[in-house]
Amino acid sequence: MTDNFLSIVFALASALTIAWGTAVRHRIAEAGPSEGSAILTAIRQPLWWAGLGTSLLAYGLQILALGFGPLLIVQPILVMSLMFTLPISALYDGRRMPLNEILWAAVLCVAVAIVVLLGRPVGGVDAPNLRHWAPALIIGAVVLGTAYHFSGRLIRREKALVLGLVTGALFGFVAVFSKAVADALRSEGVWALLTTWEFYALVLSALVGTAVQQIAFDAGALRNSLPAMKIGEPIVAFILGYAVLGESFQVSGGDYGWLGGALVVMIVSTVTLSRKGLN
User: Fold this and answer.
1) Domain segments of the chain: what residues?
2) Of 14, 70, 77, 137, which is least packed with CB atoms within 10 Å of its CB?
3) Distances (CA, A) of 210 to 29, 159, 205
4) Which positions, given as ranges, span the membrane (predicted)?
5) pTM of the model
């Protein structure tokens, strides 16, 4: 119980830092020129590096959270980063959050609480071998590579949506790699990271995900890309958590209905908040 509590605390801290980094980097993308490289324009600004540093801090907090609890506890809580993004973005834009956004935020809180408290997630395999990882890595590389290539043929709104999905999926892989790294760090120490391929996969996927995220921000309004990011990440992480790590929820009978309903409400409220609050 203590480990799960610490996992929740670190996950909430990670969600807060993710929110600030997201808001800062999108604001820079909106202020940038319409032509030229979005990434090259962004990295020339010190504030972008501050936002990136905050995002890296969020990854560290996420790894700490995963070191104390299963992915199926941490990932729903990270969805709540959107709730922190909304007031931060409103502050930058000089506006107030309307009542309907506050109400949807409350709905999201309840849905996440049901998933975590009713679902009572339990951990699975600490170090799945590469044979278990291979199908997920191959399918992920093919699907995400194809989607990224296809996005180049789309107009701004659809391009931002597709790139948002790619970003969310990449960070879903980041979440699962983070869990593997956290387990190795806790059981074998820092030096063990140098011998685990998951650590290098984590670094690579996080860098690629951050780059694609910046391109998605530049492709269109945040309301087009952020919902896809926020939903794509937990869906991919949940699938990988079940299929690769062997994690599961402790539910039976009618509780499956409540858990499934909470997951649907979590998705709907996240999409609604993204589109309402970040126009």
Assistant:
1) 2-277
2) 137
3) 13, 16, 8
4) 6-26, 47-66, 72-92, 99-118, 130-148, 160-178, 190-212, 224-244, 256-274
5) 0.76
